[in-house]
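FAQ: What does the model actually see?

It sees only this:
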Amino acid sequence: MKKKITIFTANRAEYGILKPLIQLFKKDKEIDFTLIVSGTHLSNTFGYTVNEIKKDKIKVDYEIENTLDNDSSISIAKSYGLLIISLSEVLKKINPDIFLLLGDRYETSAAATSSLICRVPIAHLQGGEVTKAAIDDQFRHSITKMSHYHFCFAETYKKRVIKMGELPKNVKNFGALNVDSLQKVKKISKSNLEEKLNFKLGKKNILVTFHSETLTKITSREQIKILLKALSEQKNCKIIFTKTNPDMDGRIINSEIENFVKKNKENSAIYSSLGHNLYVNCLRYFDLVIGNSSSGIIETPTFKIPTINLGDRQKGRIISKNIINCKIKKHDILSSIKKSFSTSFKKKLKGTKNPFYKKNTSGKIYNFLKKCKLPPDTTKDFYEN
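And it is asked to produce this:
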């Protein structure tokens, strides 16, 4: 009998990470594979990125709309509930042997909750990490306790999951799935990149992705205004912004960026979604990444690109030497930008190694799930360590 494996994705970043794994399962005739798409993939506001999946000739088996046109805490809570309701019906219908979930967003937490109640076992990627200033932290750890198999992105994270009572034999560190897949993205020329962006790059180019800190007191509007004031003082620089996640106050951040771009049309641009391939090629050609996205921590070391990590959203993650931790204060941001462009700092980055890289991550996860017991026992032992 075929093993029934289902993968869930709710946003552009998740899909970019999961794509190599999805392709492996799709090709395997011994696997009954199902792909469920939800969240911002189905939102015009965020680029309707389900089309990116379909362009890759990957069949989307189920589309579940749950994102409300608001980013207040009440709307996000309602979106959470809507997803549980709709997803539970789909899971009962397909009844997979394992439900593969990535990360720590509220959509993933809702998917895990629905799966647990429907008695569908979970395999979780990217557990054991810490992000101090985001509610994602609590979501991530709760998903760990709802899951049977764990694929962590670093040894430190693996040890943390085991400390949470998970059986060591079910906790693996095969490296970061997104880091292993970076080299598989086709490199395009700089002129081709400019054509696809419809934007002329400059001598210095900055890529900005900034999300709200969902657990800090300073408002998102205050934070993004501080960042934009610092960026407005950069001369001979081109700046590309990618829109934020649908977190609380996400639309406030996007609105402030849009106003900035309107006033600086020649030197800046904003995109709902670059898509995985364009984003990776930007990392290849740009001079600096600024923001508080996990991509800035996990992916940028591969390209040895200076990266300014703002605030506390990512505080707790392992960082490489290309990362400059920076408070969200104008003076600190300006100092960090100056440091990142300095010859001395760039020289230090030549030997940068990505601490999350391991060869053939997607293949190892794929092989593990093909060979392991599916479905696993629904009950779980608590590992005393």
